[in-house]
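Onboarding guide, step 5: your first structure request.
Type a short instruction followed by the sequence, for example:

Predict the 3D structure of this protein.
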Amino acid sequence: MDMESREKAENKVLLLYFMNRVRIPVSNMQLTRIMLENRFINYFLLQQCIHEMQKDGLILTETRENIDYYTPSPEGLKMLEMFIDLLPAGLMARLDENIDSIRSFMRLETSVVAEYTLENEDEYEVRCKILEDFKPLIDIRLSVGSREDARSICNNWKTHAKEIYPEVIAVLLGKTEE
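The system replies with structure tokens like these:
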């Protein structure tokens, strides 16, 4: 196997290993961030590997709310088992060492969502959600008059959603303390 083919195979095995170890569907954005932050693989090789792995049926793609999430397919798991020896032990150890914190961060990241869109020249729609197993616990849409307000609401939702949610539920159930 030439060096280029070996590197490409190693990258695919690394991605399969990560997806298998994290045990939750991974978005392209999450996968890209994790692989780049840890300097496991560069952006262009990552995207090429994802595309080839989809084409070859090594990963399954599920689209939820216009975001693609990847998981290893049964064929991908077979490939991982056959070629796991391509991965350097130090790389696997580094990944294994951090997998729990990565998984926790990914769950939090996919459970609290805040985004905004421009509706017209002086109105933005802000959408704030909390998801559990990709099902909405709460989904709020607001109209605001400026980009700054929209950004502020999104940032505050991401920071305080876990505190806001029980308060909203209490108010809606009429269980607020007066």
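Each response can be followed by summary notes, for example: The first strand starts at residue 26 and ends at 27.
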